[in-house]
Amino acid sequence: MQIDLSGKCILLGVTGSISAYKACDIARLFVKAGAEVHVVMSPSSERFVSALSFEALTRNPVLTEQSESWSSDLNHIELGKKCDLFLIAPATANTLNKLSKGVADTILTQTALAFEGAMVVAPAANTQMLQNHYTTGSLKMLGVNDYTIISPQEKRLACGDIGSGALADPQEIFWESARVLLRDPFWQDRRVVVTGGGTREKIDEVRYISNFSSGKMAKALCLFLYLHGADVCFITTMGNQGLPQSLYTIEVEDAKEMLAYTVDAIRVAKKGKMSKATMNSSESVHLIQKEPYLFMVAAVADFTPKFPQKGKLKKSMLGEAWDIQLKQTTDILSTLNKEGLKTIAFKAEMDSQEGLKHAQNLLKTKAVDAVCYNLLTDATSFGGSENEITFITPTQQIALGRATKLSLADTILTHAKALHDDNHTT
């Protein structure tokens, strides 16, 4: 899923790690998202990748020891002033230790010391170098100083050792950096439960009853909630491919499982994430609990086989006709305790005459705060990259128009914020 970072400016720092070549992929991801990218390279990084490669990718001159100029903004003071975020990827153990001590003996560390915006580092080094007490202490110090640290991967390293130290996947570095850029105070640390995909009601071990839901709308919502800083629990039948790896996902199969995990997730969400806030100039604090949200996007089956079978039923045993007895599934939205919870339901209809009325009725019959109504044409309407949504509340109907699901997700979250009680403490 491609997000739009137009108007954002990234400063990418590259240090002398064997994984320096992966910084080219990181730069490409930001450029593809519409961001402006500038690069600063430490002297040792130039042994692994050339400045020319980054200039070709970003269409901007690269800041190095040799290219620094005081007749333009290509210097360690001015370059960072126009950037929203300074991402150092890869960041060697040497660089991490220098950053934590304020050492500025290279063009990169000088630029970091002069930078006033958000700082993100993605370590890449031998396991023992990262686990050395000096480096672990430096990482703690950087964390205290509001650096975002993207954990390395555990795999076979370039030196042949197996352990934690490989640079995080470029896509994950992009997601985590975008999360810093797109952080929204309203959603930050707010617990949100999202359900998605069509449930699969088992007939036997190889067959099931399901629907055409692709789960794409739910994934789009999860992605934007995560990037805005929300504490997301994604309950889905479709997996989390294409989403950040650290986005908490629970995979389920049928309506019964989805109900059980949704009830549990809401219970946890209502406990709230308690945070400290300094009052005036004193050391006294108060605890803040942000009201959680539920986005019920999943297409839950209305019926499930009454007698699911173990093993595989043989065609020869079933004969020419097969009657499967079904029973109603539990209505999840009606069952949930939605007190202290903002709930947005999703309603797909194919009845152009009565569909809107059915969606409006959900506000009362299911006791939800809003409904996202989607009028479908036929089965081909599922699985596409676009939707047409009407956002319905007890007081208004807002036509969001036809757009990509990713664009609609961001718009839906804007209207979901408006549901929040202005008199609530958060």
Structure description:
- The model is unreliable at 273-287 and 422-426 (pLDDT under 50).
- Helix content is 30%, strand content 24%.
- With 426 residues, the protein is of the alpha/beta class.
- The protein has two domains: 9-181, Flavin prenyltransferase-like (Rossmann fold); 191-418, Rossmann fold (3-Layer(aba) Sandwich).
- α1 (22-32) packs across α7 (170-181) and α8 packs across α13 (405-418).
- The radius of gyration is 25 Å and the shape is elongated.
> Percent of residues in helical segments?
25-40%
What form results from the Cα inertia axes? elongated
Strand content: 15-25%
CATH class of the largest domain: Alpha Beta
Mean of pLDDT: 89
CATH superfamily of the largest domain: CoaB-like
Here the CATH topology of the largest domain equals Rossmann fold
Distance between the termini: 31 Å
Give the helices and strands, then pairings.
Layout: E1 9-14, H1 22-32, E2 36-41, H2 51-58, E3 85-91, H3 93-101, H4 107-114, E4 118-123, H5 127-131, H6 133-144, E5 148-149, E6 153-156, E7 162-166, H7 170-181, E8 191-196, E9 201-202, E10 208-209, H8 216-227, E11 231-236, E12 248-251, H9 255-271, E13 275-278, E14 285-288, E15 293-296, E16 303-305, H10 315-318, E17 326-328, H11 332-335, E18 342-349, H12 355-365, E19 370-375, E20 386-392, E21 397-404, H13 405-418
Parallel strand pairs: 1-2, 1-3, 3-4, 4-5, 8-11, 8-15, 11-12, 15-18, 18-19
Antiparallel strand pairs: 6-7, 9-10, 13-14, 16-17, 19-20, 20-21
Helix pairs in contact: 1-2, 1-7, 3-6, 8-13
